[in-house]
Each structure stands twice: as structure tokens, then as C-alpha cells.
Amino acid sequence: MNTATAWLIGRPRTSSGRSRALLVAGGSATGGGLLIAAAAVLRVPGQQVEYLPDGGIAYLTPPGGYSSLVVQAGLRPGVLTGLLLLVLPALALSWQAVTTGSARRAAVHEALRISGAAPADLRRVAVVEPAVAGFLGGLLAGGVYLTLWLLLHVAAPPSAQLLPGLSPLDGVAWLVVAALTTLVGGAAGALAAAPRRRRPVRAWPRLLAVAVGIAALVAVVAAPRDTSRPGIATTLTCAALVVLSLGLLSTGSLWVSARARRLARSGTAVDVLAAGGLRTLAGPAGRTAGTTCVAGLALGVVGGLTGQLLEPQHSLTESLPGVLFAVLAGVLAVLAAAVSLALAATDDLVTTRRAVASTAALGADPAVLEQVQRRRLAVVTTGPLMAGVLLGSLYALGAQSPIALGTVLLTIALALLFARALTAGVTRALRPQLTRAAAPSSLRVA
After folding, report:
1. Does the keyword DNA damage apply (predicted)?
2. Which residues contact 288 (CB under 8 A, 6 or more apart)?
3. Residues contacting 4, CB < 8 A, separation 6+
4. Tens of pLDDT along 20-41?
5. What single-letter DSSP state applies at residue 151?
6. For residue 314, what is the DSSP state?
């Protein structure tokens, strides 16, 4: 089977498939544009240190009128961390979109296997759709970067510019990002479609990854910062966040399994039904919980970073771009969590349609079915989101101002309210789909 045939088979034909491809492309475009912006920040000339004959130190600001956030060696790592922090929820949303629609994908692959398709052909079909969506997102990343450049260079006053002028290096970075998004999209598609054997989940490697990420983040944040080598601090902080994010993504299934066992022991009908659904879809529910936890991690870091930027030693004019970036990261994390939960809940209803109809046929009221749905959504939303926010708040350990502590506490409170509102909102939005799934006609679904 050649690539063209694989594309004809695997291309999205339904509205849900097209929406999933657009989400993959949108997440890839957002993450790619931010990566190009991070590479551009590195081209901004930094502040030079000159040692005077009398032993004093003079700081020479480079010409060009850039913001001190990208000029000063002690502040540039924070800007780079904020930009890369924005990439995390975008990539998490893309991953959630790739893994959505597992029931339809499994049916298509089974039909192809029965028709005589080889395992290599099945992998090619699974790779081509997300790879094309990733390539499209990589092309759109150039537009995202141009939008950021217009906002942060052309429209910004000289004292608030964060990005340099356009350069051929931006084109090179664009091509690199397009290639990366294509490769990562194809790899994500292959990983999502790979058959998984049912075997006991080994918890200790995943928990060890989380512990290593937490220890690395605390060590980097608590250590004194060497302003003469800001790149080291940025690299270590980003590495710690990446390790912690990967660990949190892998522990979602552990959280879901533990909560399912606890709900099953409660004895109430709603909890027992919710536990059964969580056990049946432990994989998709675990991925949703992991994505929500990563979104919470981004929110927690945003709260700590905002508090540090609002400390008295920083002027509001200089800190305003950084605060806006932090707020944008928080908004993107919230959107990623909301869209991820909506995708997972919709896919859940499609997969468990016959089970919902059977439960309704046995006498379960629509209100009971809605309570079961809300309980399952709460399991993959409230706990993971709050855990991520608390872990992300460790970024503010080095802050000495009560303002930073206040922003962290405010972030935790807002995250709790958002988790509850998100669960209620998605449950209400999916009420028509739940009613259709509970209809007797759903019992005829094969």
C-alpha cells in the first residue's frame, strides 16, 4: 500500500474527523509558532557587562530599544520559559485530538486487517492523517509567528519589544518546525493506533518519572541563578518541566484506576456505574486525566511566574509583556483542558453507547445517567487539574514577596472553580448526546 492509497483510506470524512484534524493542526500551529518566537528571542542582543577600573560594574544596553525582559540576563530565561510553557498545553491538546476516535479507528483497522492489509499498511494508514495535519500546522506556524511579530515588534513601543526584526533565520526555523510537526504528528498517530496488550500497569517507573521531575524543578527554582549564564537556567527549567509533564501524562491511568476502585467500594449505584465505565475506558480516561494535569501544571507555573513579575523590584511597565504572556499561557491551558475534556466525553459516549442504552433499558432514569456521566468527568478533571496546579506552584518557591504567594493561592482557588464549572458545563452540553445514546435504538449498534 502506497502513501496515496493510505491517505484515501485514512483521510477524515466525517465532521468529527475533520474537527479532530483541525485541532491537531491548530495545536501544532500554535506550538510551532511559539517555538519560532523562542528561537527569535535568542537573537536579541543581550545586555553587556563592563568592569570599570575602580572595580565597579556597568551594564551597557544594546541599541534597538528592546524590553528589559529579553535584554537583561536575569529576565530572559523567564521569557523563554513562558514561551515554552505555552507550547505544553498546545501539544497536549494535539495529543488528545490524535487519540480521540479510538472506537472508529479500531473498527477501520479491523476491517482492513480482515481484508488482508499487512501490519505495515495499518501503521501507514494510522500515520498519514496526523502527519498531514501536523504538516499543515507547521505551515500555519509561520502565520502564528508573524502575528506575534506584529504584536510584539511592530505594534509594541520600543521599550516593550520582545522580538527582533525578521531575518532569514526565521525562515530556517519555520522549515525546521514544519518538519518537526510532521514527524511528531506521524509518530503520535502510530503510537495512538499501536495495539496494546492488556497487562498490569507498573506504577513505579511512572511515579519515579514524576518524582524526578518534581525534584529537578525544586532544585532549579531554589538554586541561586547565575546571571552570567542565563541559558543554563532556562535549559534546566524547561528540562524539568518536560520530564514532569511526561511523567504526569503517563500517570493518568494510575489515577483513574485508583479512583475506580474507590468508587466501586462506595456501594452507591452512581459510583458503581461510574467505576465500571472508568475501568472499561481506563486508557482514554487516563490520557484525559494526564492532559488535564499538564494543563494544571501550566496554570500553576503561570500563577508563580505572574507573582514574580509583579514583585516590587520590577516596574509594571517592564513586567507588562511578561504578565500578558503568563495570562495567555493560562488561557491556552484552560482552553486545552476544556477542549480535551469535551473531546474525551464525546468519544466516551460513542464508545459506550450500547452500555448506556442497556443501563437505561434496565430502569435507570435519565437523571441517574447524567449523574454517572458527571461523576466520571469529575474523576478526570478536578483531581488531576488541582494536582497539576499544586505542582506548578512549586515554580514560585524562590519568590520572596507575599504578592507571589497571593497569586499562587488565587490560581489554586480559580482552578478549583474552573474544574467544577467545566465538569458541569460539559455534562450539560452533552445532554442531547446522552439522551440519544440512551434511546432503545442504540441497542442495535454493533
Report:
1. no
2. 96, 252, 340, 341, 344, 380
3. none
4. 888 889 989 999 999 999 899 8
5. I
6. S
Cell numbers 483513574 correspond to 256
Cell of 323: 504578565
Residue 110 has pLDDT above 80, yes or no: no
Calculate the CA 25 to chain-centre distance.
Answer: 14
What secondary structure does DSSP assign to 114-147, as a single string? HTT--HHHHHHHHHHHHHHHHHHHHHHHHHHHHH
Q: Which three cell numbers stand for residue 345?
A: 466525553
Q: How far apart are CA 437 and CA 446, in angstroms?
A: 13
**Could you give the CA distance from residue 108 to residue 127 in angstroms, rounded to a whole number?**
14
pTM for the model stands at 0.76
Q: Which DSSP symbol is given to 396?
A: G
pLDDT digits (tens, 9 = 90+) for 378-398: 998 999 999 999 998 888 776
Answer positive or negative: Cα dihedral of 171, 173, 176, 181: negative
* Amino acid letter, residue 126: A
For 228, other C-beta atoms within 10 Å of its C-beta total: 9
Encoded amino acid at 16, one letter:
S
Strand partners, 60: 48
CA distance 100 to 343: 7
Give pLDDT tens digits for 205-220: 888 989 998 998 888 8
